[in-house]
Amino acid sequence: MPNTDLSILVVDDAKFSSAVIGKTLRNAGFKDVRLASNAMDASKMMEARPVSLLIADWLMPVMDGLQLTSKVRQIDEASNHFTYIILLTAKEGPKVLAHAFDSGVDDFINKSVMNEQLLPRIYAADRISNIQNRLLRENELLVDANRKLKKYSTLDPLTGIGNKALLETCLQSTIKHCTSRGGCLGILLISINDFADIKRHHSKTVVSQLILGVSRRLRQLVRPLDTITRIAVNEFAIITTHSNMEYCQPTHFRRVYDGINLKAYKTSSGYISIDTAIALCVTDCQDEQPPYPEDIIAKAREMLPESKNAGRVIGTFWDLESI
């Protein structure tokens, strides 16, 4: 059975011809049939409401069928829609057929056999149009779902450790914990200083291997309860909690600095050494207004240049100068 709800637009500058086609379609049971006397009006009608099938005369003044096809493809692209296009023509021959298909036409009917071929071609167009538009909708749903997954994901896709979203969430909950139960927290910010040079001299595969190597080594260097995250292409952050600030000093993280900087990483391009800066920001969360996660991160980032110049971990208290 034909899909009588198929939306069809017929475009022909010859009113008699378009009226005959329209009557044929309505007699066949199609209910959503619109007529246009020129390509300009047709394109405006399609911008207002898309159709599944466009039947247009090839030879029309001002804008012919091929030019209308190009315009329709632009409309389709902007609206994530597919319009099946059939051109009516008196032209014949393989060159004509190739020219029409190269221009984006899906099918064409010779006017001499239109009475016999119009409805069968429309039934085929209905099936193809439905399939194409279903695929477009499903792909749009997949893209939207993937976008939401990325938005709410808390894992770095390359390393499997946390990302910036997880860092901020954990910082928020750790600040609340320290505020109510005491203790202190520190955020250790680790930046690969020579990352731009590494990217220039090595392939993406090697760079990924290097990042994975750093993440694995960090897991070995920190305590089991510390939270490790990758917050940028060349930056890692670690949340560490202690009962007293005396145990959260830059000297306590010298092993992390040495472990990352002094031992090369094995990649498919050989062993690669890196140079990192590490900054520590510590707070006991006992201020009247505890810090926001992004403020602690920013405070630690301010110390990175000094760490790069000094060649050691540089620390700062949330409300004091560097330590």
Question: Could you name the key traits of this structure?
Answer:
Alpha-Beta Plaits, five-stranded parallel sheet, five-stranded mixed sheet
Task: Give structural notes.
The longest helix has about 40 residues, at about 115-150. The chain has helices at about 15-25, 40-50, 65-80, 95-100, 115-150, 165-180, 195-200, 205-220, 255-260, 295-300, 305-310; strands at about 10, 35, 55, 85-90, 105-110, 185-190, 225-230, 235-240, 265, 270, 275-285, 315. With about 325 residues, it is of the alpha/beta class. Strands 2-1-3-4-5 form a 5-stranded parallel beta sheet, sandwiched between helices. A 5-stranded mixed beta sheet has the order 7-8-6-11-12, with helices on both faces. The chain contains 11 helices and 12 strands. The chain folds into 2 domains: about 10-150, Response regulator (Rossmann fold); about 165-315, Reverse transcriptase/Diguanylate cyclase domain (Alpha-Beta Plaits).
